[in-house]
């Protein structure tokens, strides 16, 4: 499976745009745009794009693994949040420059909680969905208005936008769904949690706890969204090939798990703790 650890811009084609102008604007290339969006026969002519199409633009950046959305005419913060299966509060929280959630403008850049998956030979949407643990409908909504995508046909080299698992108050930015993890795995993200304490553990598909519950402290506590990062060691060897990373908060009232975010991951079951 082919998770892409690169930066991408999500851009809606405007009247007068060309592949060359879009590539030049974002520091990409026309060939990269064609491949990532299936801009070739039988979808379309290699130089033909239409206003309203949404393109994934691979672009060099000093901030790897980011997906940047360029606000288009008619967008609202809430419609963008819906597209990427995120709560509006989360979208506002990770874009700290948003002063007024009711005031965003065309051309504005927003960081959205998503990553890119490159289709390989033999892939289907069902297979990708099952491997990443992300529902098909979530993938289709994130990729609406894109060329080269249908429910029963996708092309090798095509790059799918995949929303990151998140809750209202937590998003995990590392590892990505589908990543293979090992002891000492770095876990990163943003959270708005009580006293800035972010809880995490690893569980395999046999419900065996591989990494016991641990906590790390985000850089800011509620009501802000703080960045968190911690290494998560294995306390026992995995007994299954797959499992889940759990990242969550605990209720100040009764200690129950709240804001649980589950990321589907894979293990090398021959590795030791």
Overall description:
- The structure is a single chain.
- This protein is of the alpha+beta class.
- It has two domains: 3-163, Roll (Membrane-bound Lytic Murein Transglycosylase D, Chain A); 170-267, Sandwich (Immunoglobulin-like), CATH 2.60.40.
- The protein contains six helices and 15 strands.
- The strands form four sheets. A five-stranded mixed beta sheet has the order 9-15-14-11-12, with no helix packed on it.
- Strand 14 and strand 15 (257-267) form a beta hairpin.
- Helix 3 crosses helix 4 (88-94).
- The model has no long low-confidence stretch (mean pLDDT 93).
- This is LysM repeat protein.
- Residues 9-57, 67-112, 115-162 form the LysM domain.
């Amino acid at each position: 499976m082919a998770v892409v650890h690169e930066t991408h811009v999500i851009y809606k084609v405007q009247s007068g745009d060309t592949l060359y102008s879009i590539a030049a604007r974002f520091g990409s290339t026309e060939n990269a745009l064609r491949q990532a969006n299936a801009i070739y026969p039988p979808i379309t002519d290699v130089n033909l794009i239409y206003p309203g199409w949404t393109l994934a633009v691979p672009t060099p950046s000093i901030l790897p693994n980011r997906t940047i959305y360029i606000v288009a005419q008619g967008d609202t913060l809430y419609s963008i949040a819906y597209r990427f299966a995120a709560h509006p509060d989360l979208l506002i929280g990770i874009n700290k420059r948003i002063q007024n959630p009711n005031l965003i403008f065309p051309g504005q850049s927003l960081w959205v909680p998503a990553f890119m998956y490159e289709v390989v030979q033999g892939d289907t949407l069902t297979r990708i969905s099952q491997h990443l643990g992300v529902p098909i409908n979530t993938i289709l909504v994130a990729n609406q208005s894109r060329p080269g995508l249908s429910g029963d046909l996708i092309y090798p080299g095509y790059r799918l936008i995949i929303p990151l698992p998140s809750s209202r108050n937590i998003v995990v930015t590392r590892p990505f769904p589908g990543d293979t993890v090992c002891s000492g795995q770095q876990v990163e993200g943003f959270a708005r949690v009580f006293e800035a304490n972010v809880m995490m553990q690893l569980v395999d598909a046999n419900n065996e706890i591989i990494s016991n519950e641990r906590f790390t402290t985000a850089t800011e506590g509620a009501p802000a969204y703080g960045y968190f990062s911690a290494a998560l060691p294995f306390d026992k060897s995995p007994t299954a090939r797959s499992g889940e990373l759990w990242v969550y908060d605990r209720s100040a009232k009764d200690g129950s798990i709240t804001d649980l975010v589950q990321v589907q991951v894979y293990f090398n079951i021959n590795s030791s703790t």
